[in-house]
Write a structure and sequence with these properties.
By secondary structure, this protein is an alpha/beta fold. The protein has a domain of 159 residues: P-loop containing nucleotide triphosphate hydrolases (Rossmann fold, 3-Layer(aba) Sandwich), CATH 3.40.50. It has twelve helices and ten strands. The strands form two sheets. Strands 6-7-8-3-9-10 form a six-stranded mixed beta sheet, with helices on both faces. Strands 2-1-4-5 form a four-stranded antiparallel beta sheet, covered by helices on one side. Strand 9 and strand 10 form a beta hairpin. Helix 4 packs across helix 5 and helix 4 runs parallel beside helix 6. The longest helix is centred in the middle third of the chain and has 18 residues. It binds adenosine-5'-diphosphate and magnesium ion. Magnesium ion binds next to helix 1.
Length: 288
Amino acid sequence: MSAPTLEIRNLTKTFPIRTAFGGKAGAVTAVDDVSLRVAAGAVYGLAGESGSGKSTIARMVMGLTRPDSGDILIDGQSIIGVKSHAHRGRVQMVFQNPGASLNPRRTVGQSIRVALDAHGKPAARVGDLLDMVQLPRHFADRYPHELSGGQKQRVAIARALAVEPRLLVLDEPTSALDVSVQAKVIELLEDLGRDLGLTYLFISHDLSLMRNFTAEVGVLYRGRIVETGPTARVFADPQHDYTRLLLASVPVISDEEAALRPDIPLINGELPTAEELLALRQAERKSE
Ligand SMILES: Nc1ncnc2c1ncn2[C@@H]1O[C@H](COP(=O)(O)OP(=O)(O)O)[C@@H](O)[C@H]1O
Ligand SMILES: [Mg+2]
């Protein structure tokens, strides 16, 4: 069997907490002993609320942040200590905010050409790349401010594809978009993944986006993967309270799913935060 396209082994990253005067006031463990494998051509979903460590994992996979310990392998080769640009050709990232990731003073064509140049690919591919993300070729002459959020994200995807990567790290790629636009961008990613044989690490706080798109999910809570497995199994039979909490905010699509819906106690009519829920469960266990 060939090596998985992405393998993460016991990855840990802490950040110092600084006081207002720049002194050290302790450390926050952003990523805590995370391991996962993504087979070639597969889509792995990493879910978890804000602050759970998703972007820190993404940055380490991109070689932008160095882990404290653990290893990251791409096609079976460790990338730790390898100069970041050396593996950029194999891994590309799409960020949450397409507005901020595109240079406002460059046309769409210029932005894509910069990526092509950096990797020695012919500039003539700009038109092909726009075709691939289903934008008209004349969009090459437009500036980011002339595009909608969904169009900007398509340009960011085209730019990422310019270097013909094997693995795309998608860090909340649709979170800034309207729901209807979200669905279209996910559809595009699915088509591209199938046509180009791409492998995806798809990161989102929203589990509902993972239902059809991902084959496997990992649920991150405070830097740790608390549950992982085939997406269908995790949706049908979540094992961890925190997964149930995340699923409680996913719209149900059938009566069967409604019956499986976990029983989450409301606090003042609202879903509890993960912290409140875990405290509640602990209190329940003590009183048993
Ligand atoms: N550069 C940094 N310096 C200090 N703390 C950081 C830094 N980056 C992330 N963190 C902290 O690490 C934790 C995880 O952050 P992040 O990976 O951005 O989570 P997510 O993407 O899931 O919202 C948070 O507590 C965050 O404040
Ligand atoms: Mg993030």
